[in-house]
Amino acid sequence: MRVLIGSTPDEVARIAAENVLAGLARHGAGADPVLGLATGSSPLGLYRELARAVQEERADFSQAQGFALDEYIGIPDTHEQSYRQTLVNEVCNTIGLPAQSLHVPQGMAESVEAIEEAARDYDASIAQAGGIQVQILGIGSNGHLGFNEPGSALRSRTRIKRLAANTREDNARFFDGIEHVPTHCVTQGLGTILDAGRLVLVAIGAGKADAIAAAVEGPISASCPGSVLQLHQDAVVVVDEAAAAGLKLREYYDDAAEELTIVDIAVH
Ligand code: F6R
User: Where are the annotated coiled coils located (predicted)?
Assistant: First the structure.
C-alpha cells in the first residue's frame, strides 16, 4: 500500500488524480478506461483534476466505462440525491464520460429478488467490461468502504446492505431530514472492490483520522471494512494532514513517497 499525504485538499486532489491516471495506464494496457466511481465529498477535487487533465488533453474518457460503487434503494434514478444523478452531474458532465456508459447498481425494482438479481448482474457486467482498472474510493467515519458497513464480509459481492445508523446521520445533510434518508442500498462488495486493478482512496479532514488509522494500520477485520485495502496489491491512500493525524508510521510513508532513483540503486 502507498500512503501519500498532501498538505492541502487541493494537493490531495492533484496527487489522487495523478495516481488514477497512472493506474489507468498501468492496468488498462491500451484498452479504453474502466473507472470505478465513488460519490460523496472526498473525491470531488479528484474529479475536478481529472476534468482539468481532459482539458489539457492528458486524459480522455469519451470511450470510458464507469461503474458506480453504490446506489440507494427506493429513490428513483431521476431523484437529485440518487447516486446516478449525482455521478452524471459531478463526473459525466465534467470529465466527459458519456452518461450511457455510466453503470449504477439498480436500486428500484418490483421486488427485492429483482434487486438481488440485478446486483449479481452488476458484478457480471464489470467482468464483461474487462474489470475495473482503477476504483476511486472514499471512507466513512465508521470505516465503511462503498456502503459495506462494519460487519461486512471481506469477500462480499455486490448486494443489498442495510445502512448503519451513523451513515444515515452523516448523509442526512443531503436530504430534508434523516427520515428521508433511505435505509438500504446496493453496494459493490468488498470482494468486488478488491478485484479492481488499482484502488485510490481519498480522505480529508479530522473526522476521517480514526478510520484511516484503522484501515491502514489496524488489524484486517470486518469491524473496519476499509482494512481490506491491506489485502490489495496496488492500493493508494491519499489523505490530508488532518486525516493522517492518527498514523503511526508517518515518517516511513514520507520517506517511501520519494521516487526510487538510479542514484539510490548505485549507492546500495
Ligand atoms: C460513496 C460511498 C461512501 C463514501 C463515504 C465517504 O459512493 O460509497 O463510502 O465514500 O461515505 O463519504 P464522504 O466523501 O462524503 O465523506
Answer: none
Residue 265 confidence (pLDDT): 65
Q: Are 104 and 71 in contact (CB under 8 A)?
A: yes
Tell whether ligand 1 has an atom less than 6 A from the beta carbon of residue 147. yes
- Provide the pLDDT for residue 142: 95
Output DSSP code: residue 162. E
Q: pTM of the predicted model, to two decimals?
A: 0.96
> And the C-alpha cell for 61?
474518457
Return the CATH architecture of domain 2-265: 3-Layer(aba) Sandwich (3.40)
Which strand (E) or helix (H) includes residue 93?
helix 93-95
**Most ligand 1 atoms within 8 A of CB, residue of 12, 35, 41, 42 to mutate:** 42
Judge whether 149 counts as a catalytic residue: yes
**Backbone angle region of 141, left / alpha / beta, with phi > 0 → left and psi within -120 to 50 → alpha:** alpha
Distances (CA, A) of 211 to 2, 38, 144, 147, 202: 16, 17, 8, 14, 12
CA nearest neighbour of 136 among 72, 89, 188, 185: 188
